[in-house]
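1st attempt posting a full record on here, be nice pls
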Amino acid sequence: MDNKKTIFITGANRGIGLAMVKESLKNNFFVMGSYRKKSNTQDLMSLDSDNLKTIELDVTDEDAIKNIKSKINLKIDYLICNAGINNGYGSFYNEDHTPKQMIDVFNVNVVGSILTVRNLIDLISDSGKIIFISSIMGVQNHEGSRATAYRASKAAVNNLMISISNDLKPKGIIVTAFHPGWVQTDMGGPNASLTAEDSARNLIYNFLKLTIKDTGLLFNYDGKLMDF
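the predicted structure (as tokens):
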């Protein structure tokens, strides 16, 4: 691997996750990308690189996360908790907010992030970085009501980012969250202002600039500090 930096990206088979895989390869990383369902990995699997390892992983399955450690067998410099879902853009009384749909959102977006970090933490390198892909929709000061469960899940992600950063700061591990922008993905829709490639290019660039003074903070994709 020629002493390449390593980056592990969950939810790497589509959207921003896939774009971050491609951008990381351009930046000479050794990339590990996880996906939940093999049936939706054509674009990821089409990437021809000796510096890419793909891993099947459901981030809500703790045993599965534990089992992949033996497949990784190296230190992780950047752990990107990107896997996430949105149950819909309705308000809390809409039919896209059934109990099961809301539980699924919290299981993947929040519990999945906790389980990923908890079970891979001993693989994080000295001065490693743990980065949560969050959203501006998770900030507390807002006037919106759409996507109620998704908003709440990202607010929870921002909160757990702070808790984990407090735990890991004495070890020199940097923990932050990033809003990727409004991105042209299945979740963001075709009218979004950013392509996935533009978002990923900015994200990776700013990941590389992180220092310990940034731990516990939320950033925009362009590196600007965000209140939350």
